[in-house]
Amino acid sequence: MGQIGIEKETLKMMIRENVKTLYRKNLETASAEEIYQAAVFSLRDLITDKWIKTHDTYSEKNAKIVYYLSMEFLMGRFLGNALINMGMNTVIKEVFAELGIDYNTVEEAEPDPGLGNGGLGRLAACFLDSLSTLELPAYGCGIRYHYGIFEQKVENGYQVEAPDNWLEDGDPWGIRRNEYAVEIKFGGHVRAMLKENGGYRFVQEGYQSVMAIPYDYPVVGYGNNTVNTLRLWDARAKNRIDLKYFNEGNYQKAAEEETLAKTLTDVLYPADEHYQGKELRLRQQFFFISATVQRVVARFKENHGDFNLLPEKVAFQLNDTHPSIAVAELMRVLVDENDLPWDQAWEITQKVCAYTNHTIMSEALEKWPLDLFSRLLPRIYQIVEEINRRFCLELTEKYGNNPEKIRRLAIIADGQIRMAYMAIVGSHSVNGVAALHTEILKNQELKDFYKLYPEKFNNKTNGITQRRWLLHANPQLAELITEKIGDGWITDLAQLEKILPYVEDEEFQKRFMEIKRANKVALAKYIKSAKGIDINPDSIFDIQVKRLHEYKRQLLNVLHIIGLYNKLKMNPGLDMVPRTYIFGAKAAAGYRRAKLIIKLINSVGDVVNNDESICGKIKVVFLENYRVSLAERLIPAADVSEQISTAGKEASGTGNMKFMLNGALTVGTMDGANVEIFDEVGEENIFIFGMSAEEVQEKYNGEYDPWSVYNMNQEVRMAMTALIDGTFSNDTCLFRELYDALLNGFGGSKADEYFVLEDYADYQRAQMAVDYAYRDKERWARMAIYNTAKSGKFSSDRTIKEYAKEIWSLPSVPIEF
Length: 817
Known about the structure:
GO cellular component, one term: cytoplasm
Number of strands: 23
Cofactor: pyridoxal 5'-phosphate
Largest sheet: 10 strands, mixed
Keywords: Carbohydrate metabolism, Glycogen metabolism, Glycosyltransferase, Phosphoprotein, Pyridoxal phosphate, Transferase
Catalytic activity: [(1->4)-alpha-D-glucosyl](n) + phosphate = [(1->4)-alpha-D-glucosyl](n-1) + alpha-D-glucose 1-phosphate
Oligomer: single chain
Mean pLDDT: 94
Protein name: Alpha-1,4 glucan phosphorylase
């Protein structure tokens, strides 16, 4: 084990000294934030030796390195994760106890940086943890947004966005690396210069530029000496101020470069409903990709003269479509800056790049207007044009003169650059993130490309890191498992199958469910303090936490709650197990309907929670500002995991895996990774409902009239009527848009586009099955334990091993210390 040995007294002294040096205070007068920062600097002292050794070893061994390129890294808090992976979790708690400080207040003082929207960024974080734990040489590369995804507040039931200023009190984990700064150029024009060999060199002139400055964050492997790097790029003006303009009194012009740099990395994902938002997002993508590619090639050149070796030393993994500009930027650096012939550079680029597709939703396959792209990135645009020209020639050779086929596949068509297509053409591997998702890509969304390049397509089902999502988030359950089967599961989750013999063990069942109840009590206490709502820890905790999007169908969940409430109003003596419905979700700032669904959830909660006639049988809680640290409270306390997206819409999901690992039972459609969870646990240990992906596709292609469901199902009719009859708002028009969207279509969307009403009856059946199963305490315990025992497949360690072997050809490099 690569655990760090340090005397407790030494650690105490380091923390005391850091508080004194950093803040001119002693422990008694320092705030929780100050003590947290002092503790981080003490730990960084210990981490940095291994960090330096890791990268020295990679250089000495001339190791191949994978660069995981992602617009999002939703890391969660660093401290707890680092301590667990360093084997110092117990020691640090003892140190703080002996200093008379509550460790929990120190951990809570760390901001939870929201550098991602949800699953995509959280997956990237799990992958980095696995890469370090598996001793695989890797960098995560992204953007150091000054403000992450907004902090969500709820005012009068509505989502209100506030800045997520995670850097306000400093950044103790990040190390600024000025020596690796690179220049990033935007705009201007391109001039062709004749070279001695008769070819041309293309030079960008009249451009604006910013400097990209890397900040490095340590990613500590579990139980070993590996410390990989998360590199987040920040922007700085090349010239802070133009004194000529300043002295002339033109202060705005004087600070133009400074303003450009600041806005570039200010906010995660600006809203792109307007042209300026689109432009800023494209700038962000090119900014971090260009910075990474330039730095990687410069590093390669320090040790190698032959660029044909680049694919043996470097792998770029494009995490979704956002980084796909890497294909063109690598071509630019190889062709323009290093004089490689086009064909050689293209072969190298394809071998280096690999593309992960994370979505079935066509609107997420980014497309850029030609005028914007060519104005902002003139040389990159020329390169994309040339890639497209050669690709279209290849298509003509294969399919003959078939303009419609070529238009369908072309990278540039209909006045747009289709970035996903460039990623496919410019990569050697294209993977989906769940078995069903990959099949849908191959047979529907990307079927033309699959026919063209069948050898490129493969599946890599997503995973989660058990270090954060069980060991750190649910320490009591982790302890019970380790007591029974040893701690091998921490690095080999498949070993959880060893608890299968305990499924029928009454003593184990009792302890397992006692831990679940303790987690529920802790969550109930948190909800009482945060929201003032009393909830019953013996009720079923039914939890749906994820981004708010119509295809994820929070609306189906809340509509069913309304249906249940209506039943209770008619029959207060209804025989049912009390249930607490808990939601957590952020809606994109410009996504009006999603925000209206949040208002509906809160309005339903206000009515239901205060209606004494239903005797507390149902409660509805919306927890604001859903984030990694809140997920760590919620997931261990869940009885039921709501994974109810319209089949064929969710690429994978990873929340479903976290809940399963912690002994929650899934209510879900056969969508994304739910299909594989079903395969692992069998139909008797999961609650499946709704149409299959094929049936959904047939409904889209055929005729579907939600009015027929409305007319045939009284419960649906009453629930729908409650949206517009004043039950949940004095303003009967408030939720009319949701009513119309389901029955008639609204604002260009089809009626009931995601089949909420069509799947309602079967969802209700599944929820009754949950109620029935929960009454049999032993059966429920067996099902919960079985889910935990069978979750081994869903470790990100397994996923990363598959990437390393089948896509990157990346050997592990153990660090000797």
